Amino acid sequence: MNFQRGRSREEPEINLIPMIDVLLVILIFMMVTTTYAQISGLKINLPQAAGETTSTKEVRQVDVSVDATEHYALNANPVNFTNVDKLAEEMRKAANGAPSPVIVINADAKTPHQAVINIMEAAHIDGYTSITFKTENQSR
Fold first, then answer.
1. Please, what CATH class does the domain formed by 48-137 belong to?
2. How far apart are CA 107 and CA 66, in angstroms?
3. pLDDT tens, position by position, 20-47
4. Comparing C-alpha atoms, which of 20, 98, 13 is closest to residue 62?
């Protein structure tokens, strides 16, 4: 028997607001407690430049880094610099036989000019013609 004729039963509903609050708290907790992996390599303070980024194609890229104390690294692997010919040989190994990789020079803002010229000369010895420099955007 239905003694409550005028009343209809309320349908149960799921309240999403508390669930969203719990998920946001979990998200904030994860963001605060996560440690981000540091890229091992040289500490480099890149020079500032204002320019547009270019689109990159699927081309072999060799990252050559040099810091202010003239320590070199190829693709984040430290290299002992003795002369330009040795650096050219190491660049050839890092290119893995690619015919014309893009050489990306990551030079510290306080790097001596000769260190950058050494990288460019080593690329010239190997016959690599695509050379570019990595910079940071100017903070305005």
1. alpha beta
2. 5
3. 999 999 999 988 888 766 555 667 676 6
4. 98
